[in-house]
Amino acid sequence: MADRGAYDLEQIKAILDANQVCHAAYVKDGEPRIIPTLYMRRGEHVYLHGNRQAALLRHLGSGELGCVSVVSLDGVVVARSGFHCSMNYHSVVVIGRGELVGADEHEEVLDAFVRILVPGHEKQVRSATRQELNATAVVRIPIDEASAKIRSGPPIDAEGDLNSDVWAGVIPLISQVLDPISAPDLKAGIEVPDYIRDYPGRH
Questions:
Q1: Sign of the dihedral through C-alpha 11, 17, 19, 22
Q2: Could you tell me if 21 and 113 are in contact, meaning their C-beta atoms sit under 8 angstroms apart?
């Protein structure tokens, strides 16, 4: 529905920043392919990273076209008819040609992935080894051709259904951050650090 489309760049960035997992799609040899993967938004680009031999990264790194899709589910919309049942959501689609991140930015961008995934942890972990850096590729897609699609609010029932004896409304959905679970092989005496206890969304 056209009225659910949104094209404001700041709104698009806000939706991208509120998520960490996307579905990245591309076409190879005439066949569509789609991969769920971690991403981050920096400036005017969406960044993806992974094994240097991954088909998705080789495709985008060579300048080919790709598409990144992100969605946050906010609620189940329960209508008086099956036709009008829906979801409340915020979503973004970005389409563009990929670009391989150069050696001058490579390590810094990988550090930024850690910083965005677990804020504060980048100050604690060891630096990547040369072997790890060589095994990892980073690509980016410009946020030039992008759009958001948003649905919010109650069900929009047909007027003839409003007097129905069927419950209608919204079941809100949230992503909940629970208490951290230490690794079973964690060295004795290491406590959960404050930056983990205060992970965004936990309180």
A1: positive
A2: no
3 state DSSP class of 80: coil
Convert the pLDDT of each residue in 66-76 to its tens digit. Answer: 999 999 999 99
3-state SS, residue 20:
coil
Residue with tokens 């060295």: 187
Report the pLDDT value the prediction gives residue 203, as an integer from 0 to 100.
44
Beta bridge partners of 164: none
Alpha-carbon dihedral sign for residues 28, 31, 37, 42: positive
**Interval 137-160: pLDDT, tens:** 999 999 999 999 999 999 999 999
The CA-atom distances, in angstroms, between 47 and each of 22, 24, 26, 148, 181 are 11, 11, 15, 18, 29
Place of tokens 């092989």: 185
CA dihedral of 94, 96, 97, 99, whole degrees rounded to 10: -50
Q: How far is CA 15 from the centre of its chain?
A: 9
Cβ–Cβ < 8 Å for 3, 147: no
Structural domains in the chain, CATH included, are 2-155 (2.30.110.10)
